[in-house]
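Narrative of activities, Objective 1.

The group set out to show that a structural description can be obtained from nothing but a protein's sequence at a throughput compatible with the screening campaign. Below is one input-output pair from the validation batch, recorded exactly as produced.
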Amino acid sequence: MSKGSAIISILIAFVAGLAIGSMIDSSGGADESTLADIAMDGERAAEPSEAPGAAAPAAPGETVRLRATVPENAPQRGPDDALVTIVMWSDYQCPFCSRVEPTISRIVNEHRNDVRVVWRDNPLPFHQQAGPAAEAAREVYAQGGDEKFWQFHDLLFENQRALERADLERYAGQVGGIDMTRFRAALDNHTHQAAIQTDQRDAGQLGARGTPAFFINGVQLMGAQPYERFNEVVTAELANARRMVAGGTARGQVYATLMRTARTSPPPEPSQPGQQPQQAQRQPDPAAIYRVPVGDSPTKGPDTALVTIVEFSEFQCPFCSRVLPTVNQIRERYGDDVRFVFKHNPLPFHQNAMPAAEAAMEVQAQAGDEAFWRYHDTMFENQQQLTRQNLEQWAQALGGINMVRFRAALDNHTHQEAIQQDQALARGLGASGTPSFFINGRNLRGAQPFPAFQAVIDQELARARQLLESGTPRARLYDALIADGATEPQFINPPGGAQPAAAPAEPPADQVYEIAVPRNAPSRGPANAPVTLQLFSDFQCPFCGRIRPSLDQVEERFGRQVRIVWRNYPLPFHQNAMPAAEAAMEVFAQGGNEKFWQYHDLLFENQQALSQADLERYAQQVGGIDMARFRTALENHTHRAAVQADMNAVQEAGARIGTPSSFINGRLLQGAQPFPAFEAAINRALED
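Output recorded for this entry:
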């Protein structure tokens, strides 16, 4: 067979495997979030009840819902029984992700208990600091739950240009309550990388290549869309959810009910006359050879085999189990010409997979490869019963296992580091899902049928025999075959010479935003000052409180040259922030600037006590406030529209902010910056 025919055969086998469904990637469009990051593997295959192959086009007028799953342990804000669930895939270094954050906050703030937002990670590969930032945020969430996660999330978006390792550690320290030794270890060991890559694969299956991507009760909305577009979809979904509840669906079951009939991949776009074709996606190179060392991993078959198949697998994955008959068929067909190598890649959402991998490694350590493979078979035969008790029972049944040592290995996680090294190797090769195979270094992903394996194995047998004929000893054959192999994912150009879509352009670093100052807003300094500093802030945000010394220095240093204008930006996951903003605006309405700033200081001095009773007590401390009118304003949300107008102003200007954020003559300075940063920005504004 010619080299060209060989490659064609491999491509055919590769495509055939895709059609089987174990490697489905039905997403449209393309950007630099490549298949190395989000290609489907067996664990993300279509469900058995679904027909393999392409999804049917949507019917005219059909609401297309995609099955955006909510992992059991995903950061969220909003109640579990919300009528509308927004699953968002985002990237901490992406400027468009930052730009849409105020819109999402506004949606959650307006709809309160009817909307929840679920965070999922999709760090794009051309954002070098996005992956580490995502891992850091995951560790903060693991230690501190939703509250600490969203605080850290805000810090990352407020400081998108400062996401180095030292920055991430500093922000974790600012959040408070984080075990920094554990935090650093998680980043060093990439503890959360597998979970992040699971998010990326799920995004890819749903057609969400770029960031940000949103699924509103399964309805896809891509990019930093304006508030009106989000609100249109949310309002429609709220109406639909309320009809479901009226028809007998429990609030807590609305999302699950919608997802049961949702598509697992997007329908193909119908062709329109004159429509521009989508830009093509780069594809993994099926002919690429990767350098995959055998190391101390368990093997089956002779070291002198012509073909070595390295499998990354895990004992709880149903697709890993499903491919076993094909593996057995390969052994029967090729005999001693093929050697199998097992490497561990327990996926984070399979709770029993890591203990099972540790148990298997201890069996190998004590009794060798043969015992490992017997134990391997037992666990795959009993995938639903991988309890600690059963792991011990099966080990004991093997004979020759020191059970005291076995239990100690599991208790002390003796083999976890070696397992994590296998996982790191898989990630580096772009094969984070399971099962994934490397046949003399050639990658084949998912629970593929025998013909897909056969096509590659036959080609590799021919390649190996050529090396033998040239004098390579059989014992060194595999090393020679992979010697020049790649250590990172390899791709081929899209068909027809099309180029992948370019990454979205970064916004200008020196942008001036047009944000008009309200006619009647709390302020300090003369209205005709040459510099106006509009401060968007939140009374419950701890970082907003930390900016006060810098602003005091601004007033000291620049005097009447600067006017500071307060703008409200209560974040939705700060439950007391909106009532505090409304209370402060009522104090301003009654007492003007002097009373407002006194009340402002009291709120920041008592950030942990912002209940309704507290807000009333602080108003009385200020003095001169009509308390009956004050309470009525809070009950009737008299100032809610003004607060919302402040938030809308940022969105309409196209800015992306967290809190605190300062606009100095329109130029954005994010975060609780030290005085020198404000001084430099103000001096520049004075020079303009």
